[in-house]
Amino acid sequence: MRQLRKRLNVRTEDKNWDIIISKLHGELNKKTDLPESDPDFENQFKDALKIKRLLKRVFLFDNFDKEAAKEKLGKELNFKKKETPLRNLRLSFLRAAVILLIFITGAFIYSISSHFPIKPIYSEIIVPVGQTTKVNLSDGTQVWLSSGTKFKYPATFDRTKRDVYIDGEALFKVTHDKHNPFIVHAGSFNIRVLGTTFNVIAYSSEKKADVMLIKGSVALEEKNKNWEKKMKEGEVATIANEKNPPIISNMNNDFYSAWEKGEVVFKKEKLEEIVQKLERWYNVKFEFKNPELKNLVFSGTFLKNKPIELVFESLTLMNENIAFISGGEIGGKKIIYIKKIH
């Protein structure tokens, strides 16, 4: 501390300064006269001693870079920005020690955490069949989870990035933070964003995944860095093979965020893909009696809270050559057979 005072060229009229510093560092000469019954000195010394004890609790002096701490202290007090010494500035030892405590504590914690990062504790949500769930993350990001979705997220994000994990479908409204990217880990690829709104469908049980960008911008990247693709607002990316870049096309936003409103939407989709959605929503199992029916294409919108029989009626009105027949049960799920009738 004495060297710090000399370096910063601080002058003070506080006669107790040197005595307090020397006493704290065990450098007090026995011949040095202590102030006689000085209440101010006693109070200052008690405060200084308390701060020193606090400092010892948070770091080991022998392992700490004292010079770096002093340099940070000097910058914070803006001494180096002044062309002339601050002759009129009076810093009490208590104030200087408090400032130093802040810097040393922060530097120590940063040095420890940088070498031994603390792993965040993750929570996992599994959305029941036929339901949706909303999650508010610690940074203000909002996530709507669709039926049958698994979602892992930390209680608090760290200082450098925001990582979440999804197996299923979700609508994200990400809080903007240019210094802290938001990364969605979805199977074989990641979605990297700063702040935007997008929908992702990435069930591990399905052969392909889709990312629909509603607002802002995102970057898609394969986990092994085989490809990277940036998306623009109003685009949908289809990832069918992890080794090949996604196929980008335009989309209608209403179709891809409709499930948040309680709707099931099909847009020129194959019947095989449609029944996968119905299986998640209604907890049933479909079997095709005629494999060629899987390639039939349909478009439409259905309310999720309506009986599945109404969906069957709508599909058969669009194509009179198919029928949906109820069978037995497997694993607690009702079996629906799809067959050709003409």
Describe this structure in words.
The chain is an alpha+beta fold. It has three domains: 2-115, no CATH class; 122-255, Sandwich (Jelly Rolls); 262-340, Phage tail protein beta-alpha-beta fold. 28% of the residues lie in helices and 32% in strands. It has eight helices and 18 strands. It has helices at residues 2-8, 17-24, 39-58, 66-76, 93-115, 253-256, 271-282, 308-318, and strands at residues 122-126, 133-136, 142-145, 150-154, 162-173, 182-186, 189-193, 197-202, 209-215, 218-222, 228-231, 235-239, 247-250, 263-270, 284-288, 297-303, 322-330, 333-340.
Tally the beta strands. 18
Oligomer: single chain
Cα distance spanning the termini: 94 Å
Main β-sheet description: 13 strands, mixed
Give the low-confidence spans: 1-13, 27-32, 57-64, 79-94
Strand content: 25-35%
Query: N-to-C SSE series?
Result: HHHHHEEEEEEEEEEEEEHEHEEHEE
Number of helices in the DSSP assignment: 8
Shape annotation: elongated
Kindly provide the radius of gyration, computed on alpha-carbon positions and rounded to a whole number of angstroms: 33 Å
The proportion of residues forming helix, as a percent range, comes to: 25-40%
Kindly name the structural category: alpha+beta
CATH architecture of the largest domain: Sandwich
Count of discrete structural domains: 3
CATH class of the largest domain, named: Mainly Beta
- Average of pLDDT: 75
Q: Could you please say which CATH topology of the largest domain applies here?
A: Jelly Rolls
